[in-house]
Protein: DNA mismatch repair protein MutL
Amino acid sequence: QDPAARRPIRDLPDELISQIAAGEVVERPASVVRELLDNALDAGATQVTVRLSAGGVRLILVEDDGLGIPREDLPVALRRHATSKIASLQDLEAVGTMGFRGEALAAINSIADMSLLSRTLDTDHAWQLDGRTGEIKPASRARGTSVEVRELFYATPARRKFLKTDATELAHCIDAVRRHALVRPDVGFAIWHEGKLVEQWRACSGALASAHSLPHHDQRLADVLGAEFVEQSIAVHYESSARRADGRPAVRVWGRAGIPDAARARADQQFAYVNGRYVRDKVLTHAARSAYEDVLHGQRQPVYALYVEIDPARIDVNVHPTKIEVRFRDSREVHQAVRHATEDALAAPRAGAALADKP
Ligand code: ADP
Ligand code: MG
Structure:
């Protein structure tokens, strides 16, 4: 075919559009786990169980005890750009849910065998939708939703070739759950692989997500990252002097920053969140790193879990389909907040004491 030859412009078939979108959202099994966890948390789940087989390539099953999906909405949930989370541009600008693009389930359904099994509070049994055939039949389950994803990338073998070993894919899946667990101590998480329990983080009782009470949060940090993470870190508390319209600080930063001695060779314990969403962001990484400028030398990587709370109107989360990146309206403001927050923590008397304690 002559590439210069003029060919007619055509709409792509729906299925292909979804598969192209899936290329952006779903890189590997862990991407599916992340999307399904986002959905479970958006549905108000208090317990989420992830069951995997062959590193998630053969099977990903995510079960939650959230609000469920009514029977008539099951097929809609699989449609592209169908969401219950926003309805207008105003909603988008103040979005508080993890999801809002209405893309994930449609994308996953186009590259895997998927089924949705769900029950809402007002029905006496569950319904199951087969993603391939669209068939809906009665099923049984307590309130909540189970999403089953089998044979990921069966339709896109090129993608499948890029997958690593089952062990590596499993590790990425566990990472995805860990990132959610670190910001939701009020939710219990369990991960099973080939029928064996691999990780379990119990809900820290009484921990209200909005209260962010540090003891509960510390408990979760210790459960997920190890007791030494908490022992060798200092609590971070910072509020900008600028205020939102409702009087709350424009930027708040809290969490824990590791003492310099806790630094590691790899940057594998650096967790940053913006409004409850795990992000990988140059501004935040740079700000945290610069707080260690004078106390950490060479290539050693600080450890931290930092939670930034900012007026949603000051950020744009709609930058990338996976929402792992955010755009700050005023990135200097955020950089300073994170840097000061971390520096203040490192300069606190306890940080000095912790340093002096070291043999
Ligand atoms: P988004 O999360 O961006 O809305 P998704 O494709 O991930 O898009 O999900 C589509 C819709 O399906 C959601 O808006 C929600 O109404 C429903 N849904 C998906 N997963 C769950 C779940 N675990 N519990 C309840 N509802 C769900
Ligand atoms: Mg979603």
Notes: The mean pLDDT is 92. The domain at 226-357 is CATH 3.30.230.10 (Ribosomal Protein S5; domain 2). DSSP finds twelve helices and 15 strands in the chain.
